[in-house]
Design brief:
Elements: H1 2-45, H2 65-74, E1 81-85, H3 91-97, E2 102-106, H4 110-122, E3 130-133, E4 147-150, H5 154-167, E5 173-177, E6 188-190, E7 197-201, H6 202-205
Parallel strand pairs: 1-2, 1-4, 2-3, 4-5
Antiparallel strand pairs: 5-7, 6-7
Helix pairs in contact: 2-3
The protein binds S-adenosylmethionine.
C-alpha cells in the first residue's frame, strides 16, 4: 500500500514538474516575443526622441488610408507649399505631392526619414517638389507654408496652436488628423471617429465662433 502511495506521489510530482517546465517555456517564449516587439517598436519610434523635450514627444503612428483621403479632400482646390509636421513614412506628403503640392516633411526619426527619402528617390521625385528634412518642427519657422498637415497627439496641440498662430499667414490652411486643436474653431471637418480630420483657416481663427461652410480653394 505504502509503495502504491509513493508511486502515486512520485507520479504527481513528475506531472507537476513537467507542467511547471511547460509553463516556464511558455513564459520564456512570451517574454522573448514581448521583448522582440518592444525592440522593434523602440527601433522605429525612439530614434530622434532625445532631440525633443519630454512633454513634446509624439511617437510614430501612421495615418490610415481613410484619414489620408479625408486630409486630401480638405485640401482640395488648394495649391502651393505644404508642410507635414512629423512626416513619418511620408504617406501624407506623397499623397499631397500627387495632388500638385510642393511638400516638405519634417521628421526627427532617421529610420522613417531614410524610408521616405528612398521612396521619393525610387519614384524619381525631384527634391524641389518633395523634401524630407531631419528637423525638429518646433524649432522651425513655418511662415512660408500655405498648407500644413498635422497628425500628432493631444498634449502638444495647444502649444502648437500658439506656435502656428504666431507664424502662419492668414491664407494658410491647417488640416489636423484625429486630435483637433482645443481652442481653434474649425472651418470644416471630414469623416468620423478615428478617421475624422479638421481644417482650420488661419484668417478665421481670430473671428471665433464662425464655422463657415467647407470651402477650400485659396
Ligand atoms: C503620429 S506620427 C504621424 C506620421 C505621418 N504624418 C502620418 O500621418 O502618417 C507623428 C510623427 O511625428 C514625428 N515627430 C514627433 N515630434 C517631432 C518633431 N518635433 N519634429 C519632427 N518630427 C516629429 C514622429 O517621429 C512621428 O513620425
Amino acid at each position: 500500500m505504502e509503495d502504491c502511495i509513493e508511486v502515486i506521489l512520485q507520479d504527481r510530482t513528475s506531472k507537476f514538474l513537467s507542467r511547471y517546465q511547460d509553463n516556464r517555456t511558455i513564459s520564456l517564449l512570451t517574454g522573448a516575443i514581448f521583448a522582440g516587439f518592444y525592440g522593434l517598436w523602440g527601433m522605429f519610434c525612439m530614434p530622434g526622441f532625445l532631440k525633443v523635450p519630454i512633454r513634446l514627444k509624439v511617437p510614430y503612428l501612421p495615418s490610415s488610408v481613410e484619414q489620408t483621403k479625408n486630409v486630401m479632400k480638405l485640401l482640395d482646390g488648394r495649391k502651393g507649399r505644404l508642410a507635414d509636421l512629423g512626416s513619418g513614412d511620408g504617406r501624407l506628403v506623397f499623397a499631397a505631392f500627387s495632388r500638385g503640392f510642393h511638400c516638405t516633411g519634417f521628421e526627427i526619426n532617421p529610420i522613417l526619414l531614410a524610408y521616405s527619402r528612398s521612396r521619393a528617390w525610387w519614384e524619381g521625385i525631384h527634391y524641389t517638389d518633395v523634401s524630407f528634412v531631419n528637423q525638429d518642427f518646433w524649432k522651425t519657422d513655418l511662415s512660408k507654408y500655405k498648407n500644413v498637415t498635422v497628425f500628432l497627439a493631444p498634449p502638444v496641440m495647444e502649444l502648437l496652436e500658439e506656435k502656428l498662430l504666431k507664424e502662419l499667414q492668414g491664407d494658410t490652411r491647417v488640416v489636423v488628423c484625429q486630435f483637433p486643436f482645443p481652442n481653434w474653431p474649425h472651418t470644416c471637418s471630414m469623416g468620423s471617429g478615428l478617421e475624422q480630420v479638421w481644417a482650420y483657416d488661419v484668417h478665421a481663427i481670430s473671428q471665433s465662433d464662425a464655422i463657415s461652410p467647407c470651402t477650400s480653394a485659396v
